[in-house]
Specification:
- The chain is about 45% helix and about 25% strand.
- With about 160 residues, it is an alpha/beta fold.
- Strands 2-1-3-4-5 form a 5-stranded mixed sheet, sandwiched between helices.
- β1, α2 (about 30-35) and β2 form a beta-alpha-beta unit.
- α1 (about 1-15) runs parallel beside α6.
- The two termini are about 20 Å apart.
Length: about 160
């Protein structure tokens, strides 16, 4: 399934001359790895930051420590800040972020295992558009949650660019 998304994403980005960057947490670079496994991805894939720990989010992406303390690292607010700050660093046309709880532990009643927040920040022709998503993948398997997150983000990127 992923290869179908990758081919379409590559075709759309090349045709529209769009550069993409990613900030990944719970997926640990899976989306970046998926994209870069495809020949020619350097034509549209600019960069990635894997900010797995809170400290990495703060140091690498400039996330405000108080934002993490107030909302948690797994939140819409932190996902949005990750994407916005990544744009500030890379100036890519589209910057996407993922933060979530892949499990098997770490969940709570408010944020169960499988809770993942995504943010896509676009700046094309000086127009800014932001899409935020919350998904709860009802799986207890870490790899499945990461793969579902990967596929969801690729699908959303395609939908936004298309």
């Amino acid at each position: 399934m992923t290869s179908k998304y990758l081919k379409k994403l590559k075709k759309l980005c090349e045709r529209k001359k769009i550069k993409i960057s990613l900030a990944e947490s719970c997926t640990g670079g899976l989306v970046s790895s998926s994209i870069t496994s495809m020949a020619g991805s350097s034509n549209f894939f600019e960069s990635a930051i894997i900010s797995y720990s809170n400290n990495a989010k703060i140091k690498l992406l400039g996330i405000n420590r108080n934002l993490i303390l107030k909302h948690g690292a797994v939140s819409k607010e932190v996902a949005l800040s990750m994407a916005k700050n990544l744009h500030r660093l890379t100036r890519s046309h589209i910057c996407a972020s993922i933060t979530g709880i892949a499990g098997p532990g770490g969940g709570s009643k408010q944020k169960p295992v499988g809770t993942v927040y995504f943010s896509i920040y676009q700046k094309i022709d000086n127009k800014i558009k932001i899409n935020n998503y919350k998904k709860i993948f009802n799986f207890k398997n870490r790899i499945t949650i990461q793969k579902k997150s990967n596929d969801f983000l690729l699908q959303e990127l395609i939908a936004i660019i298309d």
